[in-house]
Amino acid sequence: MREPSPGVGDVTNPVAALGGFTLCVQSAICVALALSLDAIVGEPPETIHPVALFGRMIAPLDRVWPFSRAVGASIALVAPLAVAFLAGWLVEFATTVPVLSSIVAGLVLFSTLSLRRLLTRARDVIAASETDPDKSRERLPALVGRDPTELSPGLIRSASVESLAENLADGFVAPLLAFALGSQLSLSIGIAAAVWVKAVNTLDSMLGYREKPVGWASARLDDLVMWVPARTTAVLIALTARDFGALRRARGWRGAPPSPNSGWPMATLAAVLDTRFEKPGVYVLNADATLPDAATATRAIRTVAIAGAIAGGMSLVIASVQFSPGSLGLVTVGVGSC
Description:
Blueprint: H1 14-19, E1 21-24, H2 25-40, H3 50-58, H4 68-93, H5 98-112, H6 116-131, H7 133-139, H8 153-182, H9 187-207, H10 216-225, H11 227-241, H12 245-251, H13 263-273, E2 277-279, E3 283-285, H14 294-320, E4 321-323, E5 333-336
Parallel strand pairs: 1-5
Antiparallel strand pairs: 1-4, 2-3
Helix pairs in contact: 2-5, 2-14, 3-9, 4-5, 4-9, 4-10, 5-9, 6-7, 6-8, 6-14, 8-9, 8-11, 8-13, 8-14, 9-10, 11-13, 11-14, 12-13
């Protein structure tokens, strides 16, 4: 007896589930909306920004506790899971109206991304570093936490470009990658994954310092979470520059920063630009080169922007296609809302 043809939109069809893949319209809309908003708007106002709200919620916990490490471990476990559950539930609640759920998911995903603002801030600091170093020092804390008082223009540009590489991984590639992978299960799980990763990274940026025992668990969790995104970002930077040899050169320097992950995108960017990055008294990357001049730093902005665009395009493709266990055969294609 002849088998019936797989139905379009039938996500549970056995042939599509075993031998093909499903095009996920909702996930595609979500990613496209989030990327468009990041490119056009930049970020939500700080008064309503979910990440800023999360930070204000965590701020009172940033103190010395009788058992700081135990308290910190509880914060690292509970806080990201709580906001991830809330975000996933919000999207799941909206699934009664498919288009609405895509819009809600897109808005939430947008709140986890930060590329345009990163590029804008770096551009402002780098432009001022040549003509008005004092102004560039005033603007630098928006990018990095180091004291800019004694930094030369070259070191200011170095700090700015280092921040570009590190924050491309933390603030863009990581949440997009989490969503793209999580959306293979469902739209709400993809959003929950992106929010969880963003919350973990926010905890690390607030608490994860050596002098803060309460942040030890957050820092270690962030090290684990960022392992793949940091290395993925390094590959994207090398791909953008069409210089995969940069990854080999970066391997020799990537261990200089104290973070086990941030060294990869920073060292790769230093390699493709053939420039020196230096945080005085802490690390030097590509020590034989010179600190970035304004032209090199501007080229870094362009490289990171293109790498971000590639990351966005790849996340859109991955999130739009729900693979089944046997999808390597690409036997059939179904179209569904996922």
